[in-house]
Design a protein that fits this description.
This protein has helices at 2-12, 19-25, 29-34, 44-65, 71-81, 84-93, 104-108, 115-133, 135-145, 147-151, 161-169, 212-227, and strands at residues 177-185, 192-199, 202-209. With 228 residues, it is mainly alpha-helical.
């Protein structure tokens, strides 16, 4: 963590006080599980905290940046900004992938490059920064590494096919739209999910992905393509 501390100081002007907290932010559950006797903490609780402060900072930014946008438009933008894929991209830009503490199996299977792990670590880091330096430090960091790229569109965009499908299907009234996982393959650390989407109990699309969210988006895209 000493090298990470130096990087944070040189790149972002962040001088972490609690190095154990910083280490926890970069500790994946797989690493903690492999070292149970040492009772090492993993980053899931910090991820919860980081997600909350990220939502707050981005919401405040959008509210001030787009004074004439209705709530729905701001929600869509915020959703695209804080997607797993987008956050993983920001984690890579910050070089956080090099400092992840992973279990041997997760490391061997390519976990260091997995969007879910990196996106969670980015949020966990924000949670640790909040506890160590306060909300203003988190905001300053995000305005250094995230906001400038959002303004020029340089982030990992993922089309929200689920919202598009909902808007098309419900144009004439409410329709029950349901996403169901129908298959899971692969080991626990590297699963592939298959999801079907139903409209009023009729199957209208099928999709696969490395996470349930991505599989749902794929199913919605398949349904939209079937609609023509």
């Amino acid at each position: 963590m000493e090298n990470l501390q130096k990087k944070l100081l040189s790149d972002f002007g962040i001088d972490f006080t609690d190095l154990e907290l910083l280490k926890t932010a970069f500790t994946h559950t797989s690493f903690a599980n492999e070292h149970r006797l040492l009772k090492i903490s993993h980053n899931e609780r910090l991820e919860f905290l980081g997600d909350a402060v990220l939502q707050l900072v981005i919401s405040k930014y959008l509210y001030q940046k787009y004074p004439h946008f209705p709530e729905g438009e701001m929600s869509k933008l915020r959703s695209s900004f804080v997607r797993e894929e987008s956050l993983a991209g920001f984690a890579r830009r910050c070089g956080f992938d090099a400092y992840m503490l992973l279990g041997k199996g997760e490391e061997k299977s390519g976990g260091r490059n997995r969007d879910t792990i990196l996106g969670d670590a980015f949020e966990a880091f924000l949670g640790a920064l909040l506890l160590d330096k306060g909300e203003k430090a988190v905001e300053t960091f995000l305005y250094q590494v995230m906001i400038p790229l959002l303004e020029v569109g340089k982030f990992e965009r993922v089309t929200d096919y689920k919202t598009s499908l909902q808007e098309i299907l419900q144009v004439n009234g409410e329709i029950e739209i349901l996403y169901q996982v129908v298959d899971e393959t692969g080991p626990a650390h590297d699963k592939t999910f298959t999801v079907q989407v139903k409209a009023n109990q009729k199957i209208i699309g099928l999709g696969t992905g490395r996470s349930k969210k991505l599989a749902e988006q794929a199913a919605a895209k398949n349904a939209l393509e079937a609609e023509g």
